[in-house]
Write a structure and sequence with these properties.
Largest sheet: 3 strands, antiparallel
Order of helices and strands: HHHEEEEEE
Strand content: 15-25%
Distance between the termini: 147 Å
Number of domains: 2
Structural class: alpha+beta
Helix content: 55-70%
């Protein structure tokens, strides 16, 4: 005689509530949990490996970029050195070219027969050469400092002596013993001067 569905269900429920049935259910649940934990661990491991691979790639790319930048900077440094040397040589060449006429004039003065040359002509020749040389120097940024009659400036002048006088205001340059020179904005030689001071001012 077949059991009715209702009776079979009751028997299944009764079996499930037995200690053996509960143990089987617990074992199945535990197995599912362990499998889920293993799956999660595998997923996390794959994620970490992927992140590690990406980080290693970024490190390699950064290292390559740094090496490339270093090479570019070294090439730039070498180019700058070459450009500076080229500019220095070009500037020196320009100065030498401008000095050649001065040298020619000096040579002509030496070759001139002094017996047929007057003292005045010789003085004019020397003055001309000095003007030529001064122009060359000025064209290349050299400024002559001849501060006679100007206030003493310790940044540009070197006081070699003090002279008591009532003719000039104290602190005035009254004599230039040696002219000074400034190249562009840089002083390359101060003017050596004598400075006025008030009588009795020690």
């Amino acid at each position: 005689m077949k059991k009715s569905n209702t009776q079979a269900d009751h028997e299944a429920e009764a079996q499930a509530t037995t200690p053996e049935g509960e143990a089987a259910d617990n074992a199945e649940t535990s197995a599912r949990q362990e499998q889920g934990a293993e799956d999660n661990a595998d997923d996390e491991m794959q994620s970490l490996q992927s992140a590690l691979g990406q980080a290693e790639q970024e490190v390699a790319e950064t290292k390559e970029a740094m090496l490339r930048m270093h090479a570019e900077m070294e090439n730039l440094r070498k180019r700058l050195i070459k450009d500076l040397e080229r500019s220095r040589r070009r500037a020196l060449e320009d100065i030498m070219n401008d000095l050649l006429p001065v040298k020619d004039s000096l040579e002509r003065g030496v070759d001139t027969d002094e017996a047929t040359t007057t003292v005045e002509a010789m003085k004019e020749g020397k003055a001309l050469i000095i003007r030529m040389l001064g122009k060359v120097m000025s064209d290349h940024g050299l400024q002559e400092l001849d501060p006679a009659g100007e206030p003493f400036d310790p940044e540009l002048h070197q006081a070699m002596a003090m002279h008591e006088t009532e003719e000039y205001e104290p602190g005035t340059v009254i004599e230039v013993m040696q002219k000074g020179f400034r190249l562009h904005d840089r002083l390359i030689r101060p003017a050596m001067v004598v400075v006025a001071k008030a009588p009795g001012d020690d």
